[in-house]
Amino acid sequence: MRLRSVPLGVAVFCLLAFAVALTMSARSFAALRSSSIPAWLQAHVGEGDGQIAQVVLERARALYLKKVSEGSVKNPCYFAMDATRPGDLGNSVLGRRYYIICEAEHSFRAVSAGHGGGRNLKGVADFSNGRRCARNFGNAMDSELTAGGAYMTAEAKTSFKGYYRVGAKQNAVFMRTFVQFDGEGEAANARQRVIGGHPAALLRGMCLRKSPNSSYADHDGYVPFGKLVNYAGGRSNGCTSWSPTDAELIIPMVKDNPTTLYIYPESGDIAAVARSVAARQQASGTGPYWNASCLKEIGSPKFWPKKKLEPIIARYKNDHPLPPPQPVPICKDP
């Protein structure tokens, strides 16, 4: 039998294709070969609760496919968030606007998530948001605003926050995990802003309780103690906050396995909607996408760029210095 020579370029291509086949399952690779949205996923597109808007899905999927092709993402799932939707539907029902998409498994799940509360610098600037809908967005330091755009999940850090009561004379340790986000474009300062994802839970009414046998005790034998509060229906400081139950699902998915998160809207979308509202195009349905219920409530959205807002916040801090920190009191109850 006569052997035929194989051009070097063909041989290299074959080796690369074989390597890709080894690192991706057959099903996930097949799902990613086409940039068109598969029919099963397209069925989840819509503007009802638990559905995803077309533009949000298209951008989230494009970001994910780009990072997969670059080799920076191997996670079979990716995330998206639509911050134009309501976070609180009333009667203790939360709006589902954070999306977990795993195409290889034909899995789509929508859960709740908090948006940035913003701030009201009284007499200077009001860029605060209500619980239900976000009107103000931005990327300034200390603004506590949500910034839309492209993100990658990064390291997950779990920290001890204190103890809380779970029963008669029975306490539990509260540990909270924070997933750092790395952003691009307008969201490139996400790490400096300490923007990431975490459970919507914290300890309030903190005091110090004597517990010298605790591994978390300070040098005087005290540990922090507070009341555990679930604020899944509230606002965040600019981060993406999930209910504690949903966080238990999401955080293990990205620990040591980064993926993409696309948050809508970006500043260009906000400007386009504001122009459309001024031209009265939104009412006819011809304007760019925004959740209709929230747009009716907020009137018109606004983006606060860091170049404009950071000097305002800096001046306000200078004119309104914080009082010196007070020591945490000793718990009065046993």
Structural class: alpha/beta
Beta-strand content bin: 25-35%
How many β-strands, per DSSP? 16
Mean pLDDT: 90
Q: What is the C-alpha radius of gyration, as a whole number of Å? A: 24 Å
Report the principal-axis shape. Answer: globular
Order of helices and strands: HHHHEEEEEEEEEEEEEEHEHHEH
Q: Segments where pLDDT lies below 50 for 5+ residues?
A: 1-34
Summarize the main sheet: 10 strands, mixed
**Total number of helical segments?**
8
Helix content: 25-40%
Distance between the termini: 90 Å
Q: Could you characterize the architecture of this molecule?
A:
The protein has 334 residues and is of the alpha/beta class. 27% of the residues lie in helices and 28% in strands. The chain has helices at 8-23, 26-33, 39-42, 54-70, 244-254, 267-278, 292-298, 306-319; strands at 77-82, 88-90, 93-94, 98-102, 107-111, 120-121, 125-126, 136-138, 149-167, 170-183, 196-199, 201-210, 222-230, 240-242, 260-264, 302-304. The strands form four sheets. Strands 1, 4, 5, 9, 10, 11, 12, 13, 14 and 15 form a ten-stranded mixed sheet that branches. A hairpin with a 2-residue loop joins strand 9 and strand 10. 35% of the residues are buried. Residues 1-34 have low confidence and may be disordered.
